[in-house]
Every structure is written in C-alpha cells, then in structure tokens.
C-alpha cells in the first residue's frame, strides 16, 4: 500500500513539472483510488505547500502582480465562507483573464481537496494540509543531508523516535497525575474541561474560553425553540459568525465549524452556552481522542468487542490488564540500571513462587482424583 502511494505520488510530482494536464489528472486519480480502497472514509487532500510551490511555475507574468497573488492565496486558505471563496475565485479569474486557462480550470475542479473553507465539515484534528514543516521529513531533515550515510540517518531517526516517545510518556504521566491550572478565574465549564481534556487540549480550549469572554453577542431572531445569534470580537476581521442554539436539547452549531474540523468548541459557541447558563461541556461535544483517558477507553472498548464475539474468556481481561501494568512498569524503569536489575531479580523470585503454587495445585488435584478412584 505504502509503496503504491509513493509510486503514484512521485509520478504526480514529475508530471506536474514536465507532463501534460491529463497526466497529472491520471496521477491524482490513481493516488485517490488506491487510498480510498484501503481507507473508504478517508478525505483525500492536496498539500497546500506543494500546491503553492507548483502554482508559482504557472503564474507567468502574474507572478509579480501582488493583487493577483493576494487573491490566489486568499482562495487557498483565507476565505471565510464557501460564498466568499466562490466570489473571490470568480473575481480573480475575470480580472486576470484566466477563463480559458486549463491549469486554473482543473484546479477549480479539485477545489474540495485544497480549499480550507470547503473542508470544515470533516474532523482533521487541527492538522493542516500545509503542515510540511512539522512532518517527519522536516524533523530529521535539519540533521541529515544528501551526504548522510544510512547508518548515520538511522541513528538520527532513532533518536527522534526516542524523543517523541519520551515526550508522550511524560504527557501521559502528567495527564493522569494532575489537573491543569489556569490564570483565569476557573468557571464551571473551564473546570469541567480541565478534568476531561488532556493538558495540551485544555490549553487550546482555554484560549477559546478567553476569546469568548471578550466577545460580543447579538440576538438575530428565532424559529420555534431555535434561536440565532451573531458573535464576534471587536477589531478582528472575519470573527463575526452566526450561532444556532436549540433550546430543547442545548444543541449549538456555528458557521465557523471549528468543532466539526478540530473537535473542540469555538469561542462563538462557548459565548452562547454561557448566555444560557450551561456550565458543563455536553457529551456530544467531547471528542474521545482529546480526553485524558482516551487510551484506557480504547482498551476497554477492544475488550468489550472481543467478549461479545466470544474471543475473550474469563481470564483474558485480567491477563491483558496485568500485561499492560507490567509493560508500564518496564517502561518506567528501563533506563535506570538499578531498576532493571530489581525487576529482573523480582521476576526470578516471582517465577519460582508461581512454579511452587502450580506444583502444589497439581498435587492437590492428583490426590482428589486418587481419592475418587479409591471410592
């Protein structure tokens, strides 16, 4: 799977520079079909970094026109709503006479794959298609170059992986051992977020909460038990959004679609929830992957599914539980020589003790069987 995708991705990059538009479309189609066959619910996106880089080769004389470049990059990621994108794109095409340009027409046909405004209905967990700077390639690239040997590269890559794992271990430990504090007066909803979310996500939520405190809200009308508000922050262009709130079940939706895209509520929604005295985050707005005990819930869900399928017996749950506990113990002490020695010595003594228990149990069963035969 990985090799096939790499093959077609390389093909696409080559033909974009040297091939025809039809070849590029074939490469795009091949990548998408291979990916969707393995991951049917996947949303195929185009990297904005590569798109911007390749676009410069297509601008020609327009490359020096600041108005054109501003309009183009606004279409990529600066538009607020789908209508805003359509109007900006149409204006750009008409102003600079690009109606018959094949590349721009083909790009418009793929707009759902690169325009950030048209992808807010899908959970991307805050990951951007332009996030090349945070990729593995970038992480190891600053230490490796064309003259780096395979052995040297492996050492760099291994050190990077170890650093990531160490950071994850620390984050897991911090999340399970304490509650994050805030410089703000801890309101009920912020306190609830501190108890539910990981520390990293809590900081993101805290920023949204700060913005909600400084935002303004205006009642726009109602339809039955559904009310509509406009929420914005004075002085911030593009912050004005429409929020819909249903009184019967406290459902809140915002036109910015931050929850749908990132998995946590935006300041627009938080402002309206505060207006209606809702002091906790409703379960439907808590994305499991952002919670403090997401890993634990995953293991429990896996055990439940296996038990329902009859793939797990009365001892399997205990066995998996103990395996995880011992594995965590090993991870905790594997870097300290005395801790490793202690674990190894305890294993030897525990192993002998268990053998003795098993031996006595077998002897007991043999005596009971012998007694039954004698009767």
From TrEMBL:
Q: Would I find Cytoplasm among this entry's keywords?
A: no
Keyword Transport among UniProt keywords: no
* Highest taxon above the source species: Eukaryota
Q: Which InterPro entries match?
A: Znf_SWIM (IPR007527)
- Keywords, alphabetical: Metal-binding, Zinc, Zinc-finger
Which Pfam families does UniProt cross-reference here?
A: SWIM (PF04434)
Ranges for domain SWIM-type: 241-277
| Protein name as it appears in the record | Protein FAR1-RELATED SEQUENCE 5-like
Organism (species) = Spinacia oleracea (Spinach)
